[in-house]
Amino acid sequence: MEQLSYKTSHVNSMWAVDMRHFGIAVEVDADNPLNFSRRSAFVFELERKVPDSAPPPVLPSVTKPHIEDPMMQILLLMMTTSQMNPFKKLSGDIVTQQLYPFIDESATVVDSTQLSFLNVSSVPQPWPEPKGIKVNMMPFRPLDKGSLPKNCQAYWAIIQMCVEHSHGAPAPRGPKVAYLTIDESHVEEGKTQRRGGLHTETPGVLVGTNIAPIPEFAYHHWGHGSYNQGKVQGGIYMASNVANSTLYYDAEVKKERMGDVPNGDCRYLRKHFGEPIFNRADMIYWMTDRTPHEALPMPSGPRQFIRVILGGVHLWFKDHSTANPLVDLPSSVRVIVGNKFGTSSAGELTEVTKRRK
After folding, report:
1. Residues 284 and 265 reside in one and the same domain
2. How far is CA 168 from CA 9, 145, 158, 161, in A?
3. Structural domain for 152, as ranges
4. What is the pLDDT of residues 239-290, one digit of tens each?
5. Which of 125, 253, 268, 276 could form a disulfide with 96 if both were Cys (CB 3.0 to 4.6 A apart)?
6. Residue 205 placed within a domain
7. Is there a domain that residue 35 lies in?
8. How do beta strands 315-317 and 334-337 pair?
9. Tens digits of per-residue pLDDT, 72-99?
10. Residue 357 forms part of a structural domain
């Protein structure tokens, strides 16, 4: 590291270094190597100024012992998947697969035996006239049009198609509160309107926080969703008026392995999910909260998107969501403050509402 002019942060440093196709190094305190707090662990990108065919520079590397450490595996994965981390550029699909070959990619993580994705129906035409609406995870009552703000009520016909598909008309068994997302925005050339990178809707188990899942569940539900004997229960519905703007897989991450996909990020598992499915314009799709999907880069232009979550959610991220003055959150929902994409360990997230017993 001295050869590369990197200033160390600890008097006695220990390094984990990977130089196979790019360079990344993690510095920790050798006197306390398992302390991965933000003030104790530092990630460096090692710029290789030599041709790829040349051998990598000689570094004080103890790569194998540390990369095999399970806590280091989680640390490295989080460091390159955090939206705000400067090393996020290292986390492209190819790079991720090269950096994390030690992560279990077998069938013990991915379940392709259950139906996890469905074409539901075409959106009633025409789409509502766009007015720049942008709401996210806004609570509403799925059988009460009046529980929506007036500017969102134009989407009621689409919402009812989702409700009837999930629970059957007039949906007496449905949840008392559902969650609505509408995005009517202009997308720049080559950008995504929604979250890019293959992920699940559920954040999983929020590794690195003390916000543990409810004891009777393996992960934080965010819509849940199941298919049994031709019927779906709960789950998530999505539709867009732009074709090929979302990619889905008919597979899911197993419940008990959600801890292996921090904040739902499952790009390194892509090759195990099967064939991708690209959305058609004006088609409503159903999926579970563990179904991998991603927004895709678009040509410049407007896009209308709607998401209806009809299964229960355990967490509501206040800084990312839209409150509804007409509908309160259920008492069972835990309200979380902080940017869920803003830290590699999610350690800055804080629970402000405890689940009532």
Report:
1. yes
2. 60, 17, 14, 9
3. 110-351
4. 999 999 999 999 999 988 887 787 888 888 888 888 899 999 999 999 999 9
5. 268
6. yes
7. yes
8. parallel
9. 555 555 555 444 444 444 444 434 444 4
10. no
Nearest partner of 323 among 199, 169, 168, 137, judged by Cα: 137
**2 in any annotated domain:** no
The distance between the two most distant Cα atoms of the chain, rounded to a whole number of Å, is 70
**218 and 114 within one domain:** yes
Q: Give yes or no: residues 238 and 142 share one domain.
A: yes
Tens-place pLDDT, residues 284-315: 999 999 999 999 999 999 999 999 999 889 99
193 and 342 fall within a common domain: yes
Closest to 75 measured CA to CA, from 120, 26, 115: 26
How far apart CA 96 and CA 105 sit, in angstroms, is 12
Best CA proximity match to 330, nearest among 237, 191, 221, 256: 221
| pTM exceeds 0.85 for this model | no
- Tens of pLDDT, residue by residue over 48-60, are 443 344 333 333 3
Do residue 67 and residue 117 come from a single domain? no
Gyration radius of the chain's alpha carbons: 22
Sign of the C-alpha dihedral, residues 335, 338, 341, 346? negative
Domain count within the chain = 2
Residue that is last in its domain, among 99, 122, 157: 99
φ, ψ at 259 (rounded to 5°): -65, -15
Please give the structure tokens belonging to residue 355.
Answer: 């689940």
